[in-house]
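#lab-general

N.A. 3:47 PM
ok so I finally got the sequence cleaned up, no stray characters, all 98 residues accounted for. can someone with queue access submit it? mine expired

B.Y. 3:52 PM
send it over

N.A. 3:53 PM
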Amino acid sequence: MSPESIIMLQDKKMVISARAPGSKVIPKPEDNKVVIFRDLLFASLCFELDPVVMDILHLFYIYLHQLISNALVHLLVYMWICWTTKIKASAEGFTAAH
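B.Y. 4:20 PM
back already:
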């Protein structure tokens, strides 16, 4: 996603700037709203969301937008190991591995 696209989304109030890195303010999204990191849009980072990821998040009572970058890395490393070794990924397997 280009910087111009993000500016266009901000102009249309589809994306609202929330806080600067290091800020003590914690975003609290309203119903049907999510918090996204602008830098992830610039980097065009995305991954196909496996149903197991939702199982893992539900197990810990969290949502995808609540994860910080390091948590995403741990989750994706687990998924990558499962995909490459043909092990069936599961929420229970994730908790046992971590």
